[in-house]
Design a protein that fits this description.
Chain B: Belongs to the small GTPase superfamily. Rab family. Chain B: It holds the Pfam family Ras. Chain B: InterPro entries: P-loop_NTPase, Small_GTP-bd, Small_GTPase. Chain B: Keywords: Nucleotide-binding. The structure holds two protein chains of two kinds. By secondary structure, chain A is of the alpha+beta class. Chain A contains 21 helices and 16 strands. Among the domains of chain A are: 144 residues, Beta-Lactamase, CATH 3.30.450; 133 residues, Beta-Lactamase (2-Layer Sandwich), CATH 3.30.450. Helix content of chain A is 43%, strand content 18%. In chain A, helix 8 runs antiparallel to helix 11. The chains are: A alpha+beta, B alpha/beta. Chains A and B meet through helix 5, helix 10, strand 9 and helix 16 of A and strand 2 and helix 2 of B. Strand 9 of chain A pairs antiparallel with strand 2 of chain B, so a sheet runs across the interface. The structure holds guanosine-5'-triphosphate (GTP) and magnesium ion. Guanosine-5'-triphosphate (GTP) binds next to helix 1 of chain B.
């Protein structure tokens, strides 16, 4: 993380006039999200010793909430109902299903085929591979190709990892070759590997692998994952992940294109202050008496609309990203109200919350998640949802959401660059650190994401074609290097200014925010700094629309 | 008019067409692009039979293995179950037997069971003989129907038969979780979700589940749906 000294920063940038005594844009006293530095995670990952790679599950937040509710429950009947609501029952049957799985044993005969397969068009010339296997060397997931045919490769990876572990008492972290990086992450019973030719740093790759691991935890819980492999080291986890591969596929694409992951921040749907307030009120007034409800989260198009929480509990941006990914990847939520277990690894990796998931209405693509610790709450939550939707409709919130989603030209936040009126700025992204929220000038439209996804699904091949018009994705690609320098643990930079014949990029980190701006080529530094000043003032002016500035509770 | 409210759970392996069946019946359409169910989806529908109305709460569960252990949450208090398999997959038929065992040991009250062989349009790929499925269904006291969500065949009948059996079950007064009332006495809740039956009402102790206590499907002259 960056140091707090501001030596390199020009004086007038520290304190833009008129804003000196104010908080940085987007900051507020209470945050719904845990302010984080995604790079902290990397640091802790890297400092873990060999012993710690075996994950222990710490105390459960979910049971903490459950017992708290119990203590305050006067109704003895309620108590009885709750105490039977532990995770034991399902865990019991899970272990049963794990043990009677029919295990297909591979034999070594097919290694020759394997070698050929590694040269097949399905696998060569990809920008980035991700492989997940068990510590016993069984393939679990491959981004490209068929992991069944990768048993040989997985065996090699497993051997590499375990040789270094056993013979050298060390952990294999990176292998660098001329044009390619391989990054290894051993987490509990899983080994995750990224092999990349992209410009992503080792840090960024480890973060992505951590996300992939958390995605799996989110589907199974850490408790279940550990237990399965304790019981059967050779277990074929694909059985339990059947149908969920697409969640990992989507997550990998999502991480490559969305700066939210790079910055460890959440994007909010820009909304008029009043509209957001009405939505939040619709939720709080409806739900304040539902005692087991932990979070009510409304999202649309990978953006947060509002989050109402149980007192004392906040969410980590990475858990929100996993929820975004779940909603984006699961068309079935559009068909009907759903009731599903969801584990949020940062909140509590050991257990499931129960989620009521539904879209607000046919004519509004906002999705409401009501997360509770009570597994019998469906009917209550279903009623609550209908009440919330009704209140929102009456307060014209649906129109406001649709306007924002359809990127109505009349909104200042739709085309911020036009609105700010600094023609030299081509693109920017801003993160408010204390609230872990993000705003960028050109959020990826869903169509464009679709193109990108198709491109990657149907190949993910490296193409040398020159890009004519840069998209958000390409800008973010360019920022990666700067982001990495700014977060470099050994020698963090505060301000980087690089001017070239293609563009000029300025990255600036303070205690309160991170800012990345792309200007026209060959910008003068002074000129750029003045522009940034104006930009920050615009963000400050619009902060109530583009950020969630409070942290409502039930 | 007599109104009964019942909960029905749809069980079966991944991809056998559970959602397609339910959406075909309730939404009157078929989409090639239904996506895998996550957890379980909730639908409601009304069926009129023999001068009575059956209000069904349908729980369409996910077949993915990772949700297997969640199933009790969805079939608890259910009055009926559709056990769906894909006639082109023997494995999916075998899975039904596992579900039946599980229901038998976990659901104390009588239940209307129907075994449904879906994708009957794929006759050329059939892997489960019609007779085998019929015989199995008979051993558990269930009706057997074959359906095609694609061609909208047999589905209407599955739901109708279930409704009729539920009606019989409710008049037997054996089942406390099956709510019935007369619509002239009590106003029918309009919104599907405003009814509170699914919440934990105290249960009357009843003899353990046994084959005898299952309501049998409407005796069928013509077993081909
Ligand atoms: N030919 C044929 N295909 C069908 C039929 N019913 C469903 N399908 C197809 O089978 C696939 C799976 O259908 P779903 O309805 O999603 O299956 P499901 O049982 O709900 O699956 P899960 O939710 O994952 O448990 C889809 O591609 C459907 O189009 C049918 O009657 N005939
Ligand atoms: Mg389904």
């Amino acid at each position: 993380m960056a140091s707090t000294s501001n030596d390199n920063v020009p004086q007038h940038m520290n304190a833009p006039e008129n804003a000196s005594d104010e908080l940085e844009p987007g900051a507020c006293h209470d945050s719904i999200l845990n302010p984080t530095d995604s790079f902290e995670e990397f640091a802790s990952e890297m400092s873990s010793s060999l012993r710690e790679t075996c994950l222990t599950t710490k105390s459960s937040t979910i049971s903490e909430i459950q017992s708290e509710i119990l203590e305050t429950a006067e109704d003895p009947k309620l108590k009885a109902a709750k105490s039977s609501d532990d995770l034991q029952t399902k865990d019991g049957s899970m272990s049963a299903s794990a043990s009677n799985s029919n295990l297909i044993e591979e034999n070594g005969d097919d290694t020759d085929d394997d070698k050929d397969y590694l040269q097949s068009p399905e696998l060569v010339n990809k920008e980035k591979h991700v492989f997940i296997l068990s510590t016993a060397g069984k393939p679990i997931y491959s981004r490209y190709g068929n992991e069944d045919k990768l048993a040989g490769l997985c065996g090699v990876i497993q051997a590499l990892v375990s040789v270094i572990e056993e013979q050298n008492q060390d952990i294999l972290r990176f292998i660098n070759t001329k044009d390619c990086k391989a990054v290894f992450l051993v987490k509990g019973p899983l080994i995750l590997v990224a092999v990349s030719k992209s410009n992503e740093s080792e840090t960024q790759l480890v973060l992505q692998l951590t996300y992939a691991f958390n995605q799996i935890v989110s589907l199974l819980t850490l408790t279940q994952l550990n237990r399965i492999f304790e019981q059967r080291r050779n277990y074929d986890l694909r059985r339990l992940l059947a149908g969920a591969e697409r969640l990992i596929d989507h997550l990998l694409v999502f991480m490559e294109k969305d700066p939210a992951f790079l910055l460890g921040a959440v994007r909010c749907l820009p909304l008029p202050e009043k509209a957001r307030e009405n939505i939040t009120n619709a939720i709080t007034t409806t739900c304040h008496k539902i005692r087991d409800l932990v979070f009510a989260i409304m999202i649309a198009g990978n953006q947060l609309i509002t989050l109402v929480r149980m007192k004392k509990y906040t969410l980590h941006p990475s858990d929100i990203h996993l929820l975004f990914n779940l909603i984006r990847s699961s068309e079935s939520f559009k068909t009907a109200e759903s009731w599903t277990p969801i584990c949020l690894p940062k909140f509590d990796a050991t257990g499931f919350l129960h989620g009521h998931v539904s879209y607000i209405s046919e004519d509004c693509q906002a999705c409401l998640l009501l997360l509770t610790v009570q597994r019998d709450a469906f009917t209550t939550l279903s009623q609550a949802k209908h009440t919330i939707a009704e209140k929102m409709r009456r307060a014209n919130c649906l129109v406001a959401i649709n306007n924002a989603l359809n990127r109505n030209e009349e909104l200042s936040t739709t085309k911020p660059l036009k609105h700010i009126g600094i023609p030299e700025i081509r693109h920017f992204m801003y993160k408010c650190k204390s609230t872990a929220q993000l705003f960028s000038s050109d959020p990826i439209s869903l169509d464009r994401l679709q193109d990108y996804r198709l491109r990657h699904k149907e190949g993910g091949d490296i193409v040398d074609k020159k890009i004519t018009k840069l998209s958000d994705i390409d800008y973010v690609r360019n920022y990666r290097k700067f982001c990495n320098q700014i977060h470099c643990v050994a020698t963090p930079a505060k301000l980087i200014f690089r001017s070239s014949s293609q563009d000029t990029i300025l990255s600036w980190v303070t205690n309160g925010f991170e800012l990345y701006v792309t200007f026209d080529p060959l910008m003068e530094k002074d000129h750029a700094i003045k522009a940034v000043d104006r930009l920050l003032r615009w963000i400050k002016k619009e902060e109530e629309r583009i950020f969630i500035m409070n942290a409502p509770t039930f | 008019m007599k109104v009964i409210e019942a909960k029905i759970v749809v069980l079966g392996s991944q991809g056998v067409g559970k959602t397609s069946l339910v959406v075909r019946y309730i939404g009157k359409m078929f989409s090639k692009h239904v996506s895998p169910t996550i957890g379980a989806s909730f639908f409601t529908c009304n069926i009129s039979v023999e001068n009575a109305r059956v209000k069904l709460q349908v729980w369409d569960t996910a077949g993915q293995e990772r949700f297997r252990s969640m199933a009790p949450m969805y079939y608890r208090n259910a009055n009926a179950a559709l056990l769906v398999f894909d006639i082109t997959s023997m494995q999916s038929f075998t899975a039904i037997k596992g579900w039946v065992k599980e229901l038998q040991s976990n659901v104390p009250e009588a239940m209307v069971l129907s075994v449904v062989g879906n994708k009957s349009d794929l006759e050329s790929l059939r892997a489960v003989p019609y007779n085998e499925a019929t015989q199995y269904a008979a051993t558990i006291g269930a009706a057997y129907c074959e359906t095609s969500a694609l061609h909208d065949q047999g589905i209407e009948k599955v739901f109708k038969n279930t409704a009729i059996s539920l009606l019989q079950l409710s008049s037997s007064n054996l089942v406390s979780s099956l709510r019935s009332y007369d619509s002239t006495e009590e106003k029918i809740p309009t919104a599907s979700t405003t009814n509170d039956r699914a919440t934990h009402t105290a249960k009357v102790e009843l003899p353990a589940w046994s084959i005898d206590s299952i309501a049998h499907g409407e005796p069928q002259k013509n077993m081909c749906c």
